[in-house]
Amino acid sequence: MAVKKAVTITRRTKSAEASAGVDTLTAIAQVGWGDGGHDSSTGDVNDPDPDGTQAAGEFLVKDIENVTVNGTNAVIEVVLSADEGNGRNISSVALYDEDADPVVFVNFSPKGKDSDTIIEIDLTEEH
């Protein structure tokens, strides 16, 4: 499965400010689900825009269910349940911090979604 990821300019700015002691880095709190992370005619994965404000084709934002730390990585667990996103080809997610600012955009090969399908995605934020 093709995957393309972009850390946002907003997050990079906040990280630099935290490193300089000017501000603190806010935790990741939500995930946005979208169906616009791929070219609908070819299925090719689009490059995410680091200046973007939401997941490509975003249709739902949910709170993060669980975060674990594994060394220098934060593993973020999110689930699109049986009654969410039906009839869509899920191909984009975005992580948002506690200020509702975008952190990272991830586009991937489309996954069809119907009421019999639950999609779980483990995202790793590398530090």
TrEMBL record:
This is Phage tail-collar fibre protein. Residues 32-54 are annotated as: Disordered. It comes from the Bacteria.
